[in-house]
Amino acid sequence: MPSKKIVIIGGGPTGLGAAYRLHELGYDNWTLYEKSDHVGGHATSHVDDQGFVWDEGGHVIFSHYPYFDRLIDKVLGTEVHERIRESWIVKGESWIPYPFQSNLRYLPKELQVNCLLGASRAAANGGGRDAQNFREWILATFGEGIAQAFMFPYNSKVWTTPLEQMSKSWIADRVAVVDFKRLLENVLYERDDVGWGPNNKFKFPLHGGTGEIYRRIAACFPNKIQIKKQLAEIDVAHRRVSFADGSGDNYDLLISTAPLDLVTQMLRPVDNRLLEAAEGLEHNNLLVVGLGLRKKIETGRCWIYFTDPEMPCYRATYFSHYSPFNVPNGDTDHYSSLMCEISFRVGQAPDPQKVLDEVIAGLIRGKLLEESDRDRVVSRYHRIVGYSYPIPTLGRDRALDVLQPALLENGIYSRGRFGAWRYEIGNMDHSVLMGVEAVNHILAGEQELVFHSS
């Protein structure tokens, strides 16, 4: 297809995955446009005025795909830190290893009994096969005790959406389900059970945070990337994209990683049927706050989940544990950093400084910090991240069933975390592979396995 012009919108994992595959195949008739002055999308990293590195939320490298593994090895080589996941849940005064449901022995006895009784009843009733929504699925799968103790409060923090308005179709390997016999044995034999999940071992770039991966990929074809190009309009009749600065480009095929709801609003001519369908797509936003401390923290912990409403964040990451170079000059003998994530609904506007104060108080209550550490904070970082979680609402799949085929008929491959709008394939490895496989489909007719996975 030497005559086909391919335009890529977005320089995040999916857009750069597509670009890298085109470059790898020697296909030259393409251009990538990125709205920011840097690449990486939400997988980029930032350095604050004090020299601390921060990601836009919690990212680690783990993979389902050999292609992604090879790409990481090629761009990072040996410049990675490898970690065994050690994650915990803080609930009241209790610290429970992740996953919560497999480590009930760390709870007070009364709560242990409630959780086990609920899990027993759920197992006897056959689990969550007949559940109509995420809330029902939680109750049917885990029982009332685990639901009330962890699943309800934690997921409400993350999703900022009533759980009964969410589907259960996204769950797959995102949530550890229960084996009641195993839960009971773990309690009776006082056995830790912490190995579940695809990210129980992970890597992290030694230098530059997660964004270093994408900076290095982009460096393979710098002349093919144009930055500061904010998409404004897509003329599907003439197959032309226009940007906010007045420039534009023609395309034969478009790989778009921009949020699907926004892309729908940019289509010309306007299609009211698609606009109506896009109303079924919901997302939330993220406030990332970071605390850089003049203090050495010795820990094997990676990240901590919080259920209590007094703590605004749902997760705190020992970010200096991922790489020493996440602190100034790599000096972890004198510095450390904690990064926390707070979801908020569209239309809300949290006060970052107020949230930072609340987070510090919560970290002290949870014994992640000491009261005296207030005086050791040398960086109070914050960043608003728009479009954080694509929410798997009950109406999501109906919307996608209308939108994706209509776009594809016009030569538009809407892919990536918010292009596909499917959280269950929204990790970095999924996202990169969606770009790669879109190119493989365009050039060789190969099936897009990730995008079409159920």
Q: Describe it for me?
A:
- The chain is of the alpha/beta class.
- The protein folds into 3 domains: 6-48 and 62-81 and 207-280 and 393-444, FAD/NAD(P)-binding domain (3-Layer(bba) Sandwich); 106-184, no CATH class; 282-391, Alpha-Beta Complex (Polyamine Oxidase, Chain A, domain 2), CATH 3.90.660.10.
- It is 32% helix and 22% strand.
- It has helices at residues 13-25, 66-76, 109-124, 134-159, 180-188, 211-218, 260-266, 272-278, 319-322, 352-365, 396-409, 428-444, and strands spanning 6-9, 30-33, 45-47, 53-55, 80-84, 87-91, 94-97, 201-205, 225-226, 231-235, 240-243, 248-250, 253-256, 267-268, 282-293, 303-306, 315-317, 336-345, 377-391, 412-414.
- Strands 7-6-16-17-18-15-19 form a 7-stranded mixed sheet, sandwiched between helices. A 5-stranded parallel sheet has the order 9-2-1-13-20.
- α1 (13-25) packs across α12 (428-444) and α3 packs across α4.
Concise structural overview:
The protein has helices spanning 13-25, 66-76, 109-124, 134-159, 180-188, 211-218, 260-266, 272-278, 319-322, 352-365, 396-409, 428-444; strands at 6-9, 30-33, 45-47, 53-55, 80-84, 87-91, 94-97, 201-205, 225-226, 231-235, 240-243, 248-250, 253-256, 267-268, 282-293, 303-306, 315-317, 336-345, 377-391, 412-414.
List the topology elements.
Layout: E1 6-9, H1 13-25, E2 30-33, E3 45-47, E4 53-55, H2 66-76, E5 80-84, E6 87-91, E7 94-97, H3 109-124, H4 134-159, H5 180-188, E8 201-205, H6 211-218, E9 225-226, E10 231-235, E11 240-243, E12 248-250, E13 253-256, H7 260-266, E14 267-268, H8 272-278, E15 282-293, E16 303-306, E17 315-317, H9 319-322, E18 336-345, H10 352-365, E19 377-391, H11 396-409, E20 412-414, H12 428-444
Parallel strand pairs: 1-2, 1-13, 2-9, 6-16, 10-14, 13-20
Antiparallel strand pairs: 3-4, 5-8, 6-7, 10-11, 11-12, 15-18, 15-19, 16-17, 17-18
Helix pairs in contact: 1-12, 3-4, 3-5
